[in-house]
Amino acid sequence: MANHNQKPHAIMIPYPYQGHITPFVYLAIKLASHGFTITFVNTHYIHSKISNSQSQQNCLHNKDDLFARARESGLDIRYATVNDGFPLSFDRSLNHDQFVEGLLHVFSAHFDELVGDLVKSEDPPVTCLIADTFYVWPGMIADKYNLCYVSFWTEPALVFNLYYHMELLKKNGHFASQDNRKDTIDYIPGVEAIEPRDLMSYLQATDIWTCVHRVIYKAFTDIKKADIIICNTVQELEFDTLSALNKYQPTYAIGPIFPSGITKAPFSISLWSESDCSQWLNNKPNTSVLYVSFGSYAHTSKEDLLEIAHGLQLSGVNFIWVLRPDIVSSDETDFLPVGFEESIKDRGLIVPWCKQIEVISHPAIGGFLTHCGWNSTLESIWCGIPLICFPLLTDQFTNRKLVVNDWKIGINLCDKELITHEEVEEKISNFMCGNTTQELRKAVKEVRKTLENALGQDGSSEKNFHQFMKDIKVNARKRAGLSNGHTSPLYQNGNGLTH
User: 499 near 21, Cβ under 8 Å?
Assistant: First the structure.
């Protein structure tokens, strides 16, 4: 039987997409810096992508172990990789549905085998599994090996809460009905009101049996088995939502989960080689550059890209545009207007990928045209940059609601049904040069203070983080039969929140 004075040892497994991996890595570093042993697990494919991107930038420290440098600094972070069920050459973006089916039905067997080996061999013994909420099998694996099960939600608590109450949306005809209702939704616990257009794309869909829908249904059944839920959000920004969730399960807001010294990450975890934009930015006036990026995963149509490109061209503003080669599709990489790059060469820079935090923290950046991914939203707030919102998929529509309607730190790129270059030009020109931007900047600074305060020594996120670590230890002791275990005092108060 394990000695209860031994260090807690957590296996961590992110969902295999950039937006999930990033906060998982930073959480691993934070837990290790507080005395945890961590075994971090990536898929073979993700490991290969990160290793290749680092090799191209000549910044690879150890191609077989992404955490070698972290260990040299004294952190006990081990590293393992696991087969996701597909060969490295398989195009996971082009064959998205087939890949997701594999994550649903095949991946668990490979991960189960790895966990079994780690449980048998690791010292200190493994006591905890911290898994991405979108996996459908962590509850089963945690039970099998008698591990504390922590579900890590990398998006806002509002999005989690809406998925958690899918049955309520279904019962009221706002989801999974022949003709989804369009009136305001005002019956979700912890959500005062939300419009159907602000629901996640999967809850607005008419086809509700796609592979991703099945992932969501199973994941939010499995979540009920979690001992602890942690969210990459801030209590003060989503207090009512978190209070409602805590009536069901202990749920802690521990975000934003950033590395210390946010503008300089401890090591690269990018899936793509990152362009250095600093020299170009150094030659531009303060707040004169619009940063444009639609993230690491979502796709958009060639038609929309052409309208955005034309609008940027007409606006006359300086910009950096991150354009992934697969932004439309892996097999369609020619999507810009003829002559576009030549026409904007003095004021525009187009790169396939970049060090986003380093770019948006540069004084030359004055705004961010974004897909509203949650990491991008938090990073932009931290850097004091207002947002132009162009959501494409999943949680991004709900994140836009928080940005535009609730916190008032951004605007919509398009208010019409179809995006047009005329509207893009008008919105970008007004955003970069108009009076509204000053109001947005002021609002962003206020929200940034909330993030800063939450991460302070007596802040809500820091207190929740320490309570979360205590809960893991209590749960591990309980599972080992070393104590009866005690529910955290925060959860006993009925809301799981510090005051």
Answer: no
